[in-house]
Amino acid sequence: MALVIVRRILGSAMGVAMGLPLVAAWHEPAIPVRIKLAATVLLAIAAVSPAVGLCLIAGLLPMSFPLRMFARTEMNGPVIGELLALGFLCGAIVHLSFRRPVANRLLAPAIVLGTLAAASGVVLLSGTQASFISLSGYIADICRHYVFQYFVDSHDFGDLHLAVTWLEALGLAVVAESVVRRYPRAGQLAVQFAIVGAAVLAYFSARRLVEVSWRAPEPLAMAWRVITSIRFNPFYTDINAAGSLYALFAVPAIWLAAFGRYRLMWPAAGLLALACWLSGSRAAVAGVAVGLGVSWILSRPPSKKYSRWGVVAVAAVAFAVLIPTMLKRGSASLGDTVELRQEFARVSLRMSAAEPVFGVGLGRFRQESPRFMSPEIMAKYPSLYVGENAHNNFLQLLAELGPAALVAFVWMLAAAIRRSVGPPGEAIRTAAHAGLVGGVLAFAVSALAGHPFLTDHVRLCFFLSLGLAAGLQVSAEPLAATSSRWRTIRVVTVALVVAIVAVTLPSRVRARRDWVNLDAVVIGASAESEGPEGVIYRVAEREASWFVPAAARAVEVPVRTDPASRAPCEVRFEINGRAADLVTAPADAWRLVPLPLSASADRRSRRLVLYSSEGCRLMVGRLVVHH
């Protein structure tokens, strides 16, 4: 009984935590009321009936961009999708926490991956916190942002948003599997809803093709030219990510239309296949061929003969489709693409070797990549000086979060793509599972040569599909019959990873704070202006902070009172929390205040804080630092 109460309390707390940004949405006037109402209604529906909520989110999430046009708002489509996903997660988690738990294959690896992502977010945020006056103030700002300003400006707390969206995606996978295992029919309907939603998204690619072709003097010739040599997508800046998303849903659409007795799926299948082709993603097109081949293999009875011929057929179709695409499509030549992918793979391995346990940090690959690239490749491709992603989500996950994260992700894939073996009455469910597994593998193939996970909306759609695929499995024996040894191994593995992350987190936070460079950062003062005697200055009131290099031996601070301020103006100086001087700033001249700095082994920048008296407007010139 005690465990049941604890599970309900923890589950309810997680659900409420996922729903807190909805409060921020209602505080943001830029978000249309109809979108706020949709997310709130979805929360209520999921709390009452997670099966209905799952079907709704499966259909609405892929068409987040078209919903933006329906709502007549300038909001980004991914923000709308995230808002809806949060509403569903909040209601569904609270509902499931009060129901008897069902076996879940994705829960253990999701906990491992989520723990690593959350810890990485905490470590990265700790580096930003070093520039704040106090830890408590920074935590208060994070809480205020999460509850009241989450959808206002994500740049202020980018690391927080990245970690939260990863947790949302993993939550979608686990909740979707749990709901489908409890309500199998909901899984079949959710797959169909998702395909229709993705087809609505793909429709706009087809419409753009028609619009461009129709304006040309020879529409058919222009259409053929676009189809064979131009790549585009009307919504995504990362066209390869768009191709991965279309591949994810094109495979189950084609499979259900051809073998699942869903003839009405053919229009959706055609739109998704066309949109995938128009994206020009070579890996996505190859992924569709591989996914269809895997779906065919999974739908056959287990047999070495079927497996052997299935592999041959998949390889033949993949090469037949991919070779023309390689030769005619893409923004770079095939030779350049191969050379760059090889270099990015080496960069990933070097990065992983430099941080072999927890990686360089979630979302840090691009910023860190230049120092791991060879000078020759950077000289040949100057754009690489600003950094680049791995173009392989598996390797990027390894470099950013460490080997445990990569193993956890592969574990999730393996848990979802097992063969469905069921009685004849489960044929439709088996077909939906085979098609969706093919779509998941098509996406995984595209992720081997791209980075679709860097697009929040695509990541949410993928993990939702992964959860549906895991839940739709039909096993020859009940899932609960899994051996107690295997269950023990999973529990011990998860507990060990969580414990290691928790124990090492404080030292990682200290290392991050030591590493971050805050030199020349200013907080609490105005932008620079040119003042009397040509001195460049900032205006500070009450409290302001400057950061000076740790190696500095002294610093001189020019101060004077602003003409609009009351005189005299007393200024108190503190360095790293210790009083350094107390002076009166003159109103008619600059005063240079010398502050000696004692030697320190601390590598962090020193915080110089200026406190001015009530009603004082202080002009502070550029600091003169002596090493």
Descriptive account of the structure:
The structure is a single chain. With 627 residues, the chain is of the alpha+beta class. The chain has helices at 2-27, 33-48, 50-60, 64-71, 77-97, 107-129, 135-148, 158-182, 184-215, 219-229, 239-259, 266-279, 282-299, 304-328, 334-354, 365-368, 375-380, 393-401, 403-416, 427-447, 456-471, 484-515; strands at residues 522-525, 529-530, 536-548, 554-561, 569-575, 578-585, 591-596, 606-612, 617-621, 624-626. Helices cover 62% and strands 10% of the residues. Strands 1, 2, 3, 4, 5, 6, 7, 8, 9 and 10 form a ten-stranded antiparallel sheet that branches. The longest helix has 32 residues, at 184-215. It starts with a helix and ends with a strand.
What are the salient characteristics of this protein?
627 residues, alpha+beta, Jelly Rolls, 10-stranded antiparallel β-sheet, 10 strands, 10% strand, globular
Question: What is the residue-mean pLDDT, rounded to a whole number?
Answer: 82
Strand content bin: 5-15%
**Cα radius of gyration in angstroms:** 28 Å
**Poorly predicted tracts of residues:** 421-428
What is the SS-derived class? Answer: alpha+beta
Q: What coarse outline follows from CA principal-axis ratios?
A: globular
**N-C termini distance:** 65 Å
| Helix share, percent | 55-70%
Q: How large is the count of helical segments?
A: 22
Largest sheet, strands/sense/barrel: 10 strands, antiparallel
- Total beta-strand segments: 10
